[in-house]
Automatic annotation (TrEMBL):
Protein known as: GMP synthase [glutamine-hydrolyzing]
Chain ranges of the GMPS ATP-PPase domain: 200-398
GO CC annotation, single: cytosol
InterPro entries: Class_I_gatase-like (IPR029062), GATASE (IPR017926), GMP_synth_C (IPR001674), GMP_synth_GATase (IPR004739), GMP_synthase (IPR022955), GMPS_ATP_PPase_dom (IPR025777), NAD/GMP_synthase (IPR022310), Rossmann-like_a/b/a_fold (IPR014729)
Catalytic site positions: C78, H173, E175
Broad EC category: ligase
Molecular-function GO term, any one: GMP synthase activity
E.C. no: 6.3.5.2
Annotated ATP binding sites: S227, G228, G229, V230, D231, S232, S233
Length: 530
């Protein structure tokens, strides 16, 4: 496995993703870990990340001394290169000004890291790489034992290597996709240079994860909040595979789910997997508390609070009695690696634009032990694991769905009749997206979009149908493309598809007589309307 030491770069997680794509297991830890930690981690290779800022204080950050005594290859990236230089006896020219952008780097020598990797060659026959680079601070004097590995006109030492010790460093960022050979470079480092085997694939992981869960849980019982989303579904399938009936899933139906969602979740988990699922029908309770409430944040808070209350009541019952002799001792959650790394506080400074509800406080109040079997997986790995566990492709590759559900897609007051209209309109949109295949890619428009849904707009507009005038509601279609949900573009859906969706909704859903398409990107709009 590979140890990634994080100096606080925004893109450290991408290093981990690229390494995992090379089928090598890795973990991110803060650069401040102790020497003992580094020694006992047992890495076959170590990667030093970049850093987010160039303040004077950050220049004091150093890799633990044990990194240099571990006898394994080390790759420094950006700030990681600079600290490598300083710690091994070279020099760095620090600068207040840093720029992140496109650069063309020339490779020097025939290092194991870069030899043969190139995007184009100069007329003189020099291999060139197209990369993304942080300009500003730069290594000015190579440490003893190092040779020049890469350069640009503005950064004469853009890469350095000490091949005898297996130390490599680059000023550019191989982890971002703009660096075309970045994945190849990282793969070389972890596979060829560090010698990792490349056996990190989800098919292998299932047995290991199952064994670990069995060992952790023993004969005790586990409760899991099942939402029908990807993470909780995969967690449920995995834990069920490990401990069968010792697992009880609690599925809270707040009445603001997609059409037939409740049925689908029950069919899948209770029906096909034969898992124990408690289907809590709490529709009336949720909708009751939402009556008369129009403020989006208020709605979120109410739904979040009710959810905790309902779930807690169920969990308390299972804890007291269980179905076995002892009662439940564990609460399972579908926490995934990005959640862990972000809450670890290495570099997360995101502003809270909307309060996302979660059930993070539950284990403490319930006195249950926490079981998080997906803690070390990225989203795409969770999906692969789901497939390896036999969950249907459509379920595992679903668009995300917010916790408060249709509660934030019915603008203003949430009324049961609005929810019923919205569910039907939304189902039509999703069906048509799945059915429409883009000839250029061969993929469905559902797969070509990251999230798509219908929003209920509580205004009425005039229409005409047959001989009569109508005065009914408006909906908006929303479809976006994004890789991280922090920014998003509205999807350029084909007009023919929009036309079909619009005519089906207006003809089939009585109460809606106008369909619009949202052409706002994020920022400045958000993906959801509330
Ligand atoms: P926005 O609307 O902020 O959404 O651009 C970004 C992503 O977050 C989802 N989202 C939520 N998820 N609880 C959730 O679990 C929420 O309250 C919530 N609000 C937004 C949204 O669907 C999108 O994927």
């Amino acid at each position: 496995k590979i140890l990634i030491l994080d100096f606080g770069s925004q893109v450290t997680q991408l290093i981990a993703r690229r390494v995992r794509e090379a089928q090598v297991y890795c973990e991110i830890h803060p650069s401040s870990v102790s020497d003992d930690f580094v020694r006992s981690f047992g890495a076959k290779g170590i990667i030093l990340s970049g850093s987010h800022a160039s303040t004077y204080e950050d220049h004091q950050l150093r890799a633990p001394q044990a990194v240099w005594e571990a006898g394994v290859p080390v790759l420094g990236i950006c700030y990681g290169m600079q600290t490598m230089a300083v710690q091994l006896g070279g020099e760095v020219a620090w600068s207040d000004h840093r720029e992140f952008g496109y650069a063309e780097v020339r490779a020097h020598g025939h290092t194991r890291l870069l030899d043969g990797l190139q995007d184009f060659a100069t007329p003189q026959g020099h291999g060139m790489l197209k990369v993304w680079m942080s300009h500003g601070d730069k290594v000015s004097v190579l440490p003893p034992g190092f040779t020049l590995m890469a350069s640009t006109p503005s950064c004469p030492i853009a890469g350095m290597a000490d091949e005898a010790r297996g130390y490599y460093a680059v000023q550019f960022h191989p982890e971002v996709t703009h660096t075309l050979q970045g994945t190849a470079l990282l793969t070389r480092f972890v596979r060829q240079i560090a010698g990792c085997r490349g056996d990190w694939i989800m098919g292998n992981y299932v047995d290991e994860a199952v064994a670990r869960i069995r060992e952790q849980v023993g004969d005790e019982e586990v409760i899991l909040g099942l939402s029908g989303g990807v993470d909780s579904s995969v967690a449920a399938a995995l834990i069920h595979r490990a401990i069968g009936d010792q697992l009880t899933c609690v599925f809270v139906d707040h009445g603001l789910l997609r059409l037939n969602e409740g049925q689908m979740v029950m069919d899948m988990f209770a029906g096909r997997l034969h898992a124990k699922v408690v289907h809590v029908q709490a529709q009336a309770q949720f909708l009751g508390h939402l009556q008369g409430v129009t403020d989006p944040e208020q709605k979120r808070k109410i739904i979040g609070r009710e959810f905790v209350e309902v779930f807690q009541a169920e969990a308390a019952k299972l804890k007291a009695a269980g179905t076995g002799a002892k009662g439940a001792k564990w609460l399972a959650q579908g926490t995934i690696y990005p959640d862990v790394v972000e809450s670890g506080g290495t570099a997360s400074k995101k502003a809270t634009i909307k309060s996302h509800h979660n059930v993070g406080g539950l284990p403490a109040t319930l006195g249950l032990k926490l079981l998080e079997p997906l803690r070390e997986l990225f989203k795409d790995e969770v999906r692969e694991l789901g497939v390896a566990l036999g969950l249907p492709h459509d379920m595992v590759y679903r668009h995300p769905f917010p916790g408060p559900g249709l509660g934030v897609r019915i603008l203003g007051e949430v009324k049961p009749e609005f929810a019923a209209l919205l569910q039907r309109a939304d189902a039509i949109f999703i069906d048509e997206l799945r059915a429409a295949i883009d000839p250029a890619t061969g993929k469905s428009w559902y797969d070509l979009t990251s999230q798509a849904f219908v929003v209920f707009v509580p205004v009425k507009s005039v229409g005409v149908m047959g001989d009569g005038r109508t005065y009914e509601h408006v909906v908006a279609l929303r479809a976006v493309q994004t890789s991280d949900f922090m920014t998003a573009d509205w999807a350029e859906l084909p007009y023919s598809l929009l036309k079909k969706v619009s005519s089906r909704i207006i003809n089939e859903v009585r109460g809606i007589n106008r369909v619009t398409y949202d052409v706002s990107s994020k920022p400045p709009a958000t993906i959801e309307w509330e």
